[in-house]
Amino acid sequence: MPTEPVLPESELRARALQGIEEGRLPLVLSTHIDAGYGEGVRCDLCDKAIDADKIEYDVTDPNSGKCLHFHIACHFAWQRECARRLKGVPPRYAELRKRRS
Questions:
Q1: Which CATH code for domain 9-100?
Q2: Kind of pairing, strands 34-37 and 67-70?
Q3: φ and ψ at residue 69, rounded to 5 degrees
Q4: Nearest to 34 by CA among 58, 68, 52
Q5: What is the per-residue pLDDT across 29-74, written as a single tens digit (0 to 9) for each?
């Protein structure tokens, strides 16, 4: 089962940053992930189909309740950028964010 990234790492990172900045992707760390074989839905990061020979990772956006779909490399890129940004957030602000979720 192939797990290679669908795009170069630099492109995935740029798309993750853009998605977070535009509000299309939440700035949160995943606490629950569902996984299974792809069903052809579009990845919320790279916008490419997640084919049946790939594993699809589904995460629920805690803010909107929307189900987000990712390739493994896309999910990693998004979570890496969330972790980097959240690490720089002052603790009090991060605590307030949790309460709103």
A1: 3.30.1740
A2: unpaired
A3: -120, 135
A4: 58
A5: 988 999 999 999 999 999 999 999 999 999 999 989 999 999 999 9
* β strands within 1-101, DSSP E: 34-37, 55-60, 67-70
For the beta carbon of residue 45, count every other beta carbon within 10 angstroms.
27
CB 45 within 8 Å of CB 78: yes
Per-residue pLDDT tens over the stretch 16-39: 999 999 999 999 998 899 999 999
Please state, in angstroms and rounded to a whole number, the distance separating the CA atoms of residues 11 and 100.
Answer: 31
CB burial of residue 71 (10 Å; 0-12, 13-18, 19+):
buried
Nearest to 26 by CA among 16, 36, 11: 16
pLDDT in tens, 85-95: 998 755 544 55
Per-residue pLDDT band at 1 (split at 50, 70, 90) = very low
Domains of the chain: which residue ranges?
9-100
